[in-house]
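Re: the request from the purification team.
They wanted to know what the chain is likely to look like in 3D before they choose a buffer screen. I agreed to run a prediction and write the result into the notebook, where they can find it.
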Amino acid sequence: MPGNRPSLLRVADGIRNARASCTTRSGTLGGALMRTRVFLLVIALAIATALMFRVPAAYAIPVTFVGNLISANEVPPVSSPGTGLATVVLDAAAETLQLNATFSGLTSTTTAAHIHCCAPLGTNAGVATTVPAFPGFPLGATAGNYASVVFDLTQPTIYNPGFVTLQGGLIPAEAALIAGIQNGTTYLNIHTVNFTGGEIRGQLQPVPEPTTLLLLGTTMAGLGLARWKRRRQS
């Protein structure tokens, strides 16, 4: 028995070292998992806070809408190499609208350009804004750029009189146009000599807000970090 004592001590030491190693490893893994859980919880709380504390309507940030102007968007589609881009900045609280547009490659010169409202994507709607075109829009051209003034939506000069009559007055016409833009039921149409019904047009769709993009990016980064840590631990 006395001769076996060193062997028994070595076994005991080995068991203690194994336990210490397991404890250290367990603590490291547990700490990593805990940090990941805390990180994801912070992200979730940030998103929940952003959703709860939305900007009041009276102080709403102007929203940008864009439309990709191509001939395939016409209903029915037409054949044209023309392209363009429309950008509408709508401030529903201030009741203002601004339009920027660029176009090129049309088969004939422009005769009209306006916003149509209010019909779902893939259908036609009546002209809502002033006819034949926004003030200063380049007519008689196959290419051009346009940057409007900031239009006051409470004034009749921005509207097609027929749209105001159809909506039952200026106030409901403004409400219909704002709702149409916000709900994706408006489009900018550029008409030309060859295509009197429109050569290129684009449905106006909202551009994601910077805050939304930041929250989405942060969330995706958090999920990616969690997956990376799980792969390292496996």
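For the purification team: The radius of gyration is 31 Å.
Please add any questions underneath this entry.
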